[in-house]
Amino acid sequence: MSQTAAHTEHFDATASKLGMWLFIFTELLLFGGLFIVYSVFRFNHQSAFHLAAQELDVVLGATNTALLLVSSMTIAMSVSAVQYGHKKFTLFLVSLTILIGLVFLVNKYFEWSLKIQHGLYPGSEVLHGLGNGDTLFFGLYFFMTGLHALHIIVGVSILGWVLARVAHGHIHATHFVHLENGALYWHLVDVIWIFLFPLFYLIT
Amino acid sequence: MSSHTGSFYENTGKHKGILAWILTTDHKRIGLLYLYGIMIAFVAAALLGLLMKIELIAPGKTIMNAKLYNGFFTLHGITMIFVVVIPGLPAVFGNFLLPLMIGAKDVAFPRLNLLSWWLFVIGTLVAISSQFLAGGPPDTGWTFYAPYSFRTGTNMLPAVMGAFILGFSSILTGLNFIVTIHRMRAPGMTWFKMPLFPWALYGTAWIQLLATPIVGITLLMVVGERLLNIGFFDPALGGDPVLYQHLFWIYSHPAVYIMILPAMGVISEILPTFARKPVFGYKAIVISTMLIAIVGYFVWGHHMYTAGMSSTALLAFSFLTFLVAIPSAIKVFNWISTLYKGSIHLEPPFYWAASFLFVFMIGGLTGLILGSVATDMHVHDTAFVVAHFHYIIFGGVGFSFFAAIHYWFPKIFGRMYDKGWATVGWITFFVGFVVLYTPMFYLGIKGMPRRYYDYLPQFHGGNILSSFGAFILIAGIAIIIINLIRSARYGAKAEANPWGGTTLEWTIPSPPPLENFDEIPTVTERPYHFKQN
Amino acid sequence: MDNHTSHIVPYKTYVVILLALLTFTALSILITSYDLGPLAVTAALLFATLKTTLVLLYFMHLKFEQRLFGIMVAVVLVVFIIVMVITFLDYSFR
Known about the structure:
The structure holds 3 protein chains of 3 kinds. By secondary structure, chain A is mainly α. Chain A has one domain: Four Helix Bundle (Hemerythrin (Met), subunit A). Chain A contains 8 helices and no strands. In chain A, α3 crosses α7 and α4 packs antiparallel against α8. The radius of gyration of chain A is 20 Å and the shape is elongated. Chain B is mostly helical. Chain B contains 16 helices and 2 strands. Chain C is flat and about 55 Å long. By secondary structure, chain C is mostly helical. Helices cover 70% and strands 0% of the residues of chain C. Chain C has one domain. The chains are: A mainly alpha, B mainly alpha, C mainly alpha.
């Protein structure tokens, strides 16, 4: 398709948003596969999972949960802000969301370090020595929270790009679907964690 | 008379030479890029198949040992499934035709479309690298079953990562098509005025979108097993190999509907044109398409009847499998009814479409034998299964692919092929196909296992016949491809509508101009509005 | 130009939803101090579903979008749940 045609045609924001939602479905199914694995092994190793979960720090987990929920609010608000034409407030909200995302990652780093120091990581002798239930629990823990953290990194990057576009005026009150899409991606990351948190930290 | 001046071949936009191809965002060029890649992969994988059949022409080692044979059927499967048949019709004909058939200038996200193609190329190269790195070619079969897939010393990582990247390509194509169909239909083209090939692409796109991520994560878990020893599928660590099979087939069964739905869409386009008659039961075909797409998600366990599932699961999967056969049968009935009292025009696309009906029916009926638990017990993992899926995939998708290329060739290349040679090619292919695969049903029932390079002496006769068919088939493929390549360059110039079709792609020049339509048409009629005499 | 029938969600709405989400989170933690046995999973999933619904409807704007988006989300969730259920037809009855 030639470049000229793209300029003379109306930009279809709904198409853009639909595309983002469809991509979100693929992410939901991606994590869905892991939730299936979790469910099967939880079903087969109820008490082992119950005990293994006690190794996790609920306070840290809850803090991260609260942080992501707040960040979801801030990015949602930014979509209203851009529509009101409150550019500075929009920039503030998007930046705050990014910052919270980074804090989440720092927390995750500390959580993981603690586990790894105690020998609780995939493939470790310590873990295998604890038995099948623990091996599977922590295998799932690292795999799922790891994949989630990867998505936080991607989300932060996307929001960084969005931030730049808002700053340069490419995203504004009458053309903001890219901010909406970035926000949708961030909400996805939040929703995944909304399920990860109870399934790993609260089954004690 | 159309010529190449003013077509999309001439207008290269801001790039020149090879860049005008590999950096294009024109859906038509992207469709052609896929066509060339897929045809090369198909020929290579077919030759692998021929070599396998040469090995099987006699018991014992003929031209290769077991290890080599294992590598061959693995590569043959990976290439055919992930590189040829899953992308196949959507990537080639979906890309080229979808915007034309709905009256659009391109797909919704042209740059994403280019990315899909690049991922296709990169994924294929990564998968192929598995053949050459230290460790040796993968020998697990294309299904990568655990625990062997994480215990084997062969190059699993590139094979699995290649498949992962190819999956991403598939997802993005599906995403693009869904948005295109929702947002870019021409004015007046309501959902039920849309032709059946776009409908088929729509159903397919949803499967590409929703099923592929599951195999994506499963392949990542295999990587996790190989690199980190996480234990999900390792019985020694409490994992379950059957869980791998569940996850793998939760994608790979819907994947066969990614393959067959567009194939059915092609047949639904060709039969009305060559019967000069509206398709029988348009709405029923639409509904059947969507039913197949949805119910197809729930039948995956019929690949696992002997794996050790509960009897409840066996019952449920068998029941659901029989259920999903119904919409397919409805379509076959409707296609045949389309021909009834039609004015049949005998041309190569019609030959392919008619023979599709034959091979698809055999594939489908033998599928019922496999779908029934009691009979499957005896034929699981035998040559019977191999015959079934070649009949339904190669027969279904393959015949449809050749039907599509012979139908839309004039539109795409602006030239007509030699119909005499096309017919000879078709007959040779068809005869070769039947001779190659039919004996396998018998061999399977008699107990010859699949994926073995050797067999008991009583299977020798059937194997000789089957391998002989392979040579005929390859000859047919050669005739077809040579004819098409020559005709693309030297064939007689084609007009806009050589077949008398009624869908929008036939209203524009052959080959189409860069932006397809000078003016986006307004649609008032239903498709296939042939006047009946 | 975006074709938006722009209904702008007030900031306050988002704050209220956040408070609801935090409350449910707190409740889901508190409920673990009671021994619910097998119902523990159900309770956890119930709260998670509730929170997700709020995020989907308000933060992700589903409540204010065209019906099509909501229908798609529902279909995807239903398909996934059915796949999960069918998988358990194997594991629960082995």
